[in-house]
Specification:
The chain is mostly beta strands and 71 residues long. The chain is 0% helix and 75% strand.
């Protein structure tokens, strides 16, 4: 599975990219374990108390493991 999204609003730009692959657990097909990698980047600009401009960039990256179950 590949997924990506981007957005703006209170942030100047936030984007997210995820890539995973899964392994089915059991015969019912309702359970799986997914392994992958995620990258999230956000840039925030705000006006400070003294009128100065504050800019913050936050980046999270790394591997992920997820357990998925379907009803």
């Amino acid at each position: 599975m590949l997924r990506g999204d981007a957005g703006a609003g209170d942030t100047e730009l936030t984007w997210n990219a995820v890539g995973t692959f899964g392994v089915q657990v059991g015969k019912s097909g309702k359970h799986s374990v997914r392994f992958g990698y995620r990258h999230l980047h956000s840039k925030i600009e705000q006006e400070g108390r003294n009128g100065s401009e504050l800019e913050t960039e936050i980046t999270f990256s790394g591997p992920l493991i997820a357990y998925v179950f379907k009803w």
